[in-house]
Amino acid sequence: MSSAMCLRLRRWVSPFKKLQLHHNNLLHPFSYYTTIENNKPNQQPLPPPIQVSLTESTGRGVFATRRIGVGDLIHTAKPLVSHPTYSSLHNVCYFCLKKLSNKAQTIQFCSNECREQAKDFYSVEERVDWSAYDEYCRKQGLKYPLLVKRLACMVASGAASAECLDILQPARLSTEMILKMENEFSLLKSCLMNTDVKDEEMAFLTKQWYIGVLARIRINSFRVELAGGLYEDLFLSAVASVDAEASVGNAVYMLPSFYNHDCDPNIHIVWIENVNARLKALRDIEQGEELRICYIDASLDQNARQTILFEGFGFRCSCSRCVYGD
Known about the structure:
The chain is of the alpha+beta class. The chain has helices at about 15-20, 25-30, 110-115, 120-125, 130-140, 145-155, 175-195, 205-220, 230-235, 300-315, 320-325, and strands at about 30, 50-55, 60-65, 75, 80-85, 220-225, 245-250, 260, 265-270, 275-280, 290-295.
């Protein structure tokens, strides 16, 4: 998620060149256009009608390459990394976060497909005694270190690159935050080193890597709230609200992380059955118009929104709602 205060525009030039070089690789593996009405049966999904460009004030942004109608599915996105919350650990699929009908005392997968896709990182994860790390995170009320733990196992198993989140913007960290992260890193490394995981598989796991990954996860992760049912039912109600207990985990995506914030967004992100995100237009969007999501609860008053955005994302919002005191 972009933030004006975190980095100057010039600091985006190098990462953005990297983004341009891998433009096709970024858009197609992680997001694709799936509006059934616009695709013929058995036809390959079309590329999403968007492009990532630099903005004048907020770094990267996502813009429409053609007119998008209200209610259109713009694209879907699979996560780079995800993890269930502690409270939902035993009643959702450990890979796709789909809710399960039965609650168990052990890790569950909703299908053989999910079990197969999780096979590599889970083969590392299940060999480790995470009790010290998990206990620390539970007591501190931490959720983002769970994503780092999952990513570390993915990298160690070869399922992901250690640099897979480098393109994303990092949060600005205080000295106090860095000290806490160093404690978390020590716990994570200790857990992994007390196993039969090979040293060469763990060569990437440095303090710098841990802090860099966590700094990116802090402002680019999404709380996954499963709505259930049909998206159209939610869309017709004008706001896709879900129960607090619908939150089943957190996830980081590539393309959705490039969307900037607006307290009056023109697109919305929703999860229906699992961790795969769907982005739809909340109103008609013209070609060349920037697509924006709302990072927080848009129903909050102006002061609350400004406080949360500044403390959580490092910027003060200057959207039309905030400018006019709405």
